[in-house]
Amino acid sequence: MAIEVRIPTILRSYTDGAKAVEGKGATLEELIGDLEARHPGLKDRLVEKGALRRFVNVYLNDEDVRFLGGLETPVADGDTVTVLPAVAGGAA
């Protein structure tokens, strides 16, 4: 088994168009490192200066990892990680 990572449309150019990819690791940081090895450039879009980028939301089994431990959040086989770009805007 592996960890399923769901990729938003804007980042699919790094995964050859795949909506979801599989990875492995004991923590979110290790998982992102594993993904980077197979999908170069993806890590730079998710991580900046040792932390998740401000405008990228990452969910582990529907829970925001910022409240679970950030990059140190433990992950396990069978988990689902969803990456979502933050959306802002609107009319005043």
Keywords, separated by commas or semicolons:
92 residues, Ubiquitin-like (UB roll), two-stranded antiparallel ribbon, 2 helices, 17% helix, globular, ThiS/MoaD-like, Mopterin_synth/thiamin_S_b, Sulfur_Carrier/Prot_Modifier, Molybdopterin converting factor small subunit
Describe the structure.
The protein is of the alpha+beta class and 92 residues long. It has one domain: Ubiquitin-like (UB roll) (Roll), CATH 3.10.20. The protein has helices at residues 28-38, 42-46; strands at residues 3-6, 20-23, 47-48, 51-52, 56-60, 63-64, 80-85. Strands 2-1-7-5-6 form a 5-stranded mixed β-sheet, covered by helices on one side. The protein has a two-stranded antiparallel ribbon with strand order 3-4. A hairpin with a 2-residue loop joins strand 3 (47-48) and strand 4 (51-52). The chain starts with a strand and ends in a 7-residue tail after the last strand. The mean pLDDT is 91.
Question: How would you summarize this macromolecular structure in one to three sentences?
Answer:
The protein has two helices and seven strands. The chain has helices at 28-38, 42-46, and strands at 3-6, 20-23, 47-48, 51-52, 56-60, 63-64, 80-85. Pfam families: ThiS (PF02597).
Q: Secondary-structure element sequence? A: EEHHEEEEE
Taken together, the total number of domains comes to: 1
From the N-terminal CA to the C-terminal CA, the straight-line distance is 48 Å
Q: Whole-number average pLDDT?
A: 91
